[in-house]
Write a sequence for this structure.
């Protein structure tokens, strides 16, 4: 799988190059943003309030005179890291459960799939909001609730990919050789579903970014003055006619992250021979 | 046909079971919200004696299982209770004490608004996704298809609150073509209502269309590559005949499924768009009730949404099975 991804770079697929560099910038901003923001993201009155974009303030300043560009760069970490953790956890758990269900089948599979059907029928946004109101909205609860809802979607995909592998000859032969269930799953099944898992991780990350932004947009995740993008969009909404740049900056940052993640997934899945299942969220 | 009815029966029974299971989950979650109904209603007037009276009234002195069963029975009978927070407008000045608004009175008008919005979105997105899906599949080798597909992908991956904000910025703030607030209940003329509905519908239609186009395109591409389409071409059938009477009916299944499911999503999941355009829909009501911890409204709203979701799934599956005989033999 890795050599196919490297192949994408060597073949100079221009879109893929642009997308990966954009994602690279986002990741660098998330890791090291706090070291090189032009202004301190929390200090008020580094410029006049409501300054339009200029050379000293690329994305202008907000109602308290804070530099919007610095806030966006600093805020990247509150978007990307929780999203990556949530999608990573969900992909891990979902793949594990999915492979086990496909391998065991019989009544494990029955119960598992009924559970999946049930959870997918819950209106996830409202339920997440109820959970957050009940347990208090701290980062761990947010990540875990998002993980919970995403896990079952991954289970669905990975299970159906693994089901196709389980009936293959080499798995049956391995069973007849008397290999242990663990060795069969790790050596025979897992390598054959890894591209599915990788694409699924990529899709889930996009949705997790969307969800993190949405939750703080609704006021349920980060609290001011943390410069999380969804929160910044919500805060800037009331001044949208006087100072549109306060909203525009984080909106464009979020859009560039999510769209490049979407494109990345698309090109990757095409290369790995997977189909992307988008769903309404 | 006999098989089809058995499928309907099976699925209906299953849906009732899942609805019951979901009601348990939601009821349990709502139970965990901070405080209880009695303290929420009384607020600052809470004295121990008062709380005791109201706890009895809300059955809070009974065990949770009994309370769930009572609530479930009342909910199924259409008796959704009264709000804990919202006061009946006509009784506000009533010296004899205030009456609380009934939950049905709060939820149903909002549901109506949301259904209006949802039908506008469908009116835009169904023709658009059919057209785009067919065009991108049929002309898949053309240059403009690459751009169209890129645009579709853009629509799929953009978060709807970002699209909404950008729409608001461009069309309401700068160009001033549409009002920034979509309070359709206060509109004075039909034209105003249409104007208010345009931006939220467009925002949602972009997301819905993107997903439906991709489903449509995917299934149509597969079918255009199939043997029977090739055979029809070799038989010398006309291009439009092959597309519209051979390929399209078979490709519609996934697209119908997505459309039906997105209708449900439009009813409950569009909270952000409702917030951005201040649209008085069900999502906004649920969000506000959650902030005020108005549990009867939360319960009723969430149950309605789950019910919609389950039955839309059911209808989508049955429609697909009805249209495509291959799916009936399972």
């Amino acid at each position: 799988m890795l050599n196919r991804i490297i192949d994408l770079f060597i073949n100079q697929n221009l879109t893929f190059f642009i997308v990966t560099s954009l994602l690279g910038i986002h990741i660098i901003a998330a890791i090291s943003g706090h070291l090189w923001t032009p202004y301190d993201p929390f200090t008020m009155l580094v410029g006049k309030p409501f300054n339009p974009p200029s050379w000293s303030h690329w994305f202008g300043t907000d109602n308290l005179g804070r530099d919007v560009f610095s806030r966006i760069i600093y805020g990247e970490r509150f978007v990307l890291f929780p999203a990556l953790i949530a999608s990573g956890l969900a992909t891990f758990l979902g793949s594990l459960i999915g492979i086990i269900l496909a391998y065991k089948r019989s009544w494990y599979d029955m119960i598992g799939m009924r559970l999946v059907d049930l959870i997918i029928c819950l209106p996830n946004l409202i339920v997440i909001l109820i959970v957050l109101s009940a347990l208090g909205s701290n980062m761990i609860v947010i990540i875990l609730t998002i993980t919970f809802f995403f896990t079952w979607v991954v289970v669905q995909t990975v299970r159906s990919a693994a089901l196709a592998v389980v009936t293959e000859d080499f798995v049956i032969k391995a069973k007849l050789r008397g290999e242990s269930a663990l060795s069969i799953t790790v050596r025979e099944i897992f390598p054959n579903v890894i591209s599915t898992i990788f694409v699924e991780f990529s899709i889930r990350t996009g949705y997790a970014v969307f969800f993190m932004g949405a939750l703080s947009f609704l006021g349920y995740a980060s609290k001011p003055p943390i410069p999380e993008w969804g929160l910044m969009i919500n805060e800037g909404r009331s001044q949208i006619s006087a100072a549109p740049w306060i909203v525009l900056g984080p909106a464009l940052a979020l859009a560039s992250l999510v769209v490049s993640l979407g494109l990345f997934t698309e090109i990757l899945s095409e290369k790995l021979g997977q189909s992307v299942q988008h769903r309404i969220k | 046909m006999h098989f089809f009815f058995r499928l309907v029966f099976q699925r209906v029974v299953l849906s009732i079971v899942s609805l019951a299971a979901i009601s348990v989950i939601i009821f349990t979650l709502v139970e965990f919200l901070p405080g209880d109904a009695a303290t929420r209603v009384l607020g600052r007037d809470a004295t121990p004696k008062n709380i005791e009276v109201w706890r009895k009234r809300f059955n809070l002195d009974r065990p949770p299982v009994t309370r769930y069963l009572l609530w479930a029975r009342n909910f199924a009978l259409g008796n959704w209770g009264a709000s804990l927070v919202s006061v009946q407008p006509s009784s506000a000045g009533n010296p004899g004490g205030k009456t609380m608004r009934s939950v049905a009175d709060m939820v149903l008008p909002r549901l109506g608004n949301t259904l209006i919005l949802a039908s506008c979105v469908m009116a835009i997105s169904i023709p658009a996704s059919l057209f785009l899906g067919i065009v991108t599949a049929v002309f898949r080798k053309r240059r403009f298809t690459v751009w169209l597909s890129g645009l579709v992908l853009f629509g799929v991956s953009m978060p709807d609150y970002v699209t909404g904000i950008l729409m608001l910025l461009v069309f309401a703030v700068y160009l001033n073509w549409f009002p920034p607030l979509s309070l359709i209940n206060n509109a004075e003329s039909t034209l105003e209502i249409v104007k208010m509905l345009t931006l939220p519908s467009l925002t949602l239609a972009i997301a819905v269309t993107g997903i439906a186009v991709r489903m449509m395109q995917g299934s149509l591409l597969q079918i255009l590559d199939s043997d029977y389409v090739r055979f029809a071409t070799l038989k010398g059938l006309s291009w439009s005949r092959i597309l519209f009477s051979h390929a399209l009916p078979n490709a519609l299944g996934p697209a119908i499924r997505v459309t039906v499911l997105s209708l449900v999503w439009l009813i409950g999941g569009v909270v952000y768009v409702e917030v951005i355009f201040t649209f008085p829909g069900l999502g906004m009501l649920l969000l506000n009730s959650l902030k005020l911890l108005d549990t009867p409204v939360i319960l009723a709203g969430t149950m309605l949404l789950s019910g919609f979701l389950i039955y839309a799934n059911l209808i989508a599956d049955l429609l697909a099975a009805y249209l495509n005989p291959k799916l009936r033999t399972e």
